[in-house]
Each structure stands twice: as C-alpha cells, then as structure tokens.
C-alpha cells in the first residue's frame, strides 16, 4: 500500500501514487517525466486519444477525476479554464476531491482565478487534505525538457514535500499562501503579453527596413532586447510555425483574468489591455487554436505586410 503523500513520509516512486487530470500539450509531456522517473500514474482526459501516448508508456486510465483521486496520493490537474478546474476538482460526485482520501494533495497547474485557488485550498482542508496552486510558464518546450517555471501557492511544508515531483518538471518557486501562485502566473502573463507585442513589432519593422529578419533576431538575442519569448518563438514565426505551445484561446482567457483582477485592484495596465485586444482579434478571426506566436498575423494584417517571404538565414 502506498504511503499517503499528506503524511510526513517522503515522496518516492515506491511510496507515492500519482494522479493526473488533463493530458494536452503541456500535461502529456509533464506526465511522461513522472512515468520515466518510476512513479505509478493514473490519468484522466476527456479526449481519450490525448491520453493514449501515456497509456503506451505504462500509465493507467481513470474513468473520472474522482476515480483517479481514489487511486492516488497526489493529484495534478492542468486543464483549460477556471470552470474546468472547478468541475474536475470540486464537483461533488465526479470531482477529484470527492475521491481523495484524507492526507492527499491536489496540485492545480492550470492558470486560473486566485479566488478559486483559495476556495480549493479551503475545501481540501475541510476534508483533511492539502491543495497547492502551481501554474507554470515555459510553454511546450519547457514541458518537454522539464525546465518549467512553477509558481506555487500553499503552505511551505506541503510544497517542500512535493519537491521531488516538481523537480522532474522544472523549478518550483514558492510565492506565498493559497492563490499566490496564480497571482504570480498572471503577472508572468502580463509580462509575456507586452513582450510578444514588442517582439513582433520589431520583426515587422526590421522586415520593412529591408533587414534579414533571421540575422536581426540573432543579433539582438544577446543584447538587452533578448528574451525567452524571442528564443522560443522568433524562429517559429519566420517558419510560419503556429503550432500551439500555448493556445491563443487560453491566453485570451488568462489576460481576461488579469484585466478582471486589475479592475478589482483599481489599477490600469494599458499594455495588458492592448495585448488582450490584439489577441481577441486573433480569436475573432478563428485563429484561437493556434499558438500565441500567431499574434504576428494581426500585426501583418494591420500593416498589410507578410513575414512569410521575409529574408531569413
């Protein structure tokens, strides 16, 4: 019998059973790291085909979030929207918390509402369980390479005990109590949004100026304009590779949460508001299932130019 992760016993492949809800672009790679480290894993995904690669690696399939939790000591979730988080974790009949035994831990890695993270933490505590909000940054490449930035909100002892699992996925940063991981991720998204606008505006300007855009990206990458967004997406944009490391639809959701929080806080962030409108334009054009780098399409339309045939080394 596996030892509950909610006790003082260390988390190891021999003592800890893992559950995972949501095996999309990010979740699939993250699960694979846990499987390769020797952890037993039970997964649930609404679309079975997205879980099949993990089943091929040895994961078991759960019939619902509740059934996954009943076979697990620690249950991770990374789904689409706050409504999905509420459903898969808190639904009284099918949600993970309904199947989790006392001492178990919920770890939600979805970017979601800070207030919902607090609610989940309170609901878990009332059942003798723990909850951590731990959204991530780094995109599909970070998930594949195990180099994600993880923003954790919750109590220190629980987060410390989860370190063997987090370390397989990336670097955990404890940001404070329940909800603080979500606040940190939202601030991260605000930073990324304006950075992406700046990157693509620079690329279009360089193109109109007659520069080799690929050489220009390489030239600025080691200077003050260098960024993770440039490293992840500059070359992809030139190759017209809009496969989603992170979906436009989900980014619109994230930026909407950010704007709602800004209104609640009484602060104005005009760069965030502009970026959100540009991404909403992408969604309105039916491009919500592309990656966030597809923002270039909006700027191309605004300027009647295309980087499709831009000179690139």
TrEMBL record:
Q: Which residues form the 3-hydroxyisobutyrate dehydrogenase-like NAD-binding domain?
A: 179-298
Q: Determine if Oxidoreductase is one of this entry's keywords.
A: yes
GO terms of molecular function: NAD binding; NADP binding; oxidoreductase activity, acting on the CH-OH group of donors, NAD or NADP as acceptor
Read off the InterPro entries from this record: 6-PGluconate_DH-like_C_sf, 6PGD_dom2, 6PGDH_NADP-bd, HIBADH-like_NADP-bd, HIBADH-related, NAD(P)-bd_dom_sf
UniProt keyword terms in alphabetical order:
NAD, Oxidoreductase
Taking every annotated instance into account, which residue ranges of this chain make up the domain 6-phosphogluconate dehydrogenase NADP-binding?
17-173
Gene3D superfamilies per UniProt: N-(1-d-carboxylethyl)-l-norvaline Dehydrogenase, domain 2 (1.10.1040.10), NAD(P)-binding Rossmann-like Domain (3.40.50.720)
What's the short name of a Pfam family annotated to this entry? NAD_binding_2
Coiled-coil zones:
none
- Please list the residues that make up the active site: 185
Protein name per its UniProtKB record: 3-hydroxyisobutyrate dehydrogenase-like 1, mitochondrial
Q: Which organism is it from?
A: Punica granatum (Pomegranate)
Give the classification, highest ranks. Answer: Eukaryota, Viridiplantae, Streptophyta, Embryophyta, Tracheophyta
């Amino acid at each position: 019998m596996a030892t509950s992760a909610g006790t003082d016993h260390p988390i190891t492949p021999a003592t800890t059973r893992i559950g995972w809800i949501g095996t999309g672009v990010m979740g699939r790679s993250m699960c694979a790291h846990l499987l390769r480290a020797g952890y037993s894993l039970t997964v649930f995904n609404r679309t079975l085909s997205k879980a099949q690669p993990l089943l091929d690696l040895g994961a078991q399939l759960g019939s619902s979030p509740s059934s996954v939790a009943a076979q697990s000591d620690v249950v991770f979730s990374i789904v689409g929207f706050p409504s999905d988080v509420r459903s898969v974790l808190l639904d009284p009949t099918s949600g993970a918390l309904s199947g989790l035994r006392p001492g178990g831990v919920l770890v939600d890695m979805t970017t979601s509402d800070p207030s919902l993270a607090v609610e989940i933490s309170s609901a878990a505590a009332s059942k003798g369980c723990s909850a951590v909000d731990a959204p991530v940054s780094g995109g599909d490449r970070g998930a594949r390479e195990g180099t994600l930035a993880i923003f954790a909100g919750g109590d220190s002892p629980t987060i410390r005990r989860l370190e063997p699992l987090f370390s397989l996925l990336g670097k955990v940063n404890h940001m404070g109590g329940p909800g603080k991981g979500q606040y940190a991720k939202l601030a991260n998204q605000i930073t990324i949004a304006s950075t992406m606008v700046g990157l693509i505006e620079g690329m279009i300007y360089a193109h109109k100026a007659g520069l080799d855009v690929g050489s220009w990206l390489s030239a600025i990458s080691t200077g003050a304009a260098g960024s993770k967004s440039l490293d992840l997406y500059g070359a992809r944009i030139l190759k017209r590779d809009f496969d989603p490391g992170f979906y436009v639809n989900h980014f619109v959701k994230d930026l909407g949460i950010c704007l709602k929080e800004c209104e609640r806080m009484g602060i104005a962030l005009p760069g965030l508001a502009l970026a959100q409108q540009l991404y909403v334009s992408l969604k309105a054009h039916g491009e919500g299932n592309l990656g966030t780098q597809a923002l270039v399409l909006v700027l191309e339309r605004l300027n009647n130019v295309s980087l499709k045939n831009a000179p690139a080394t």
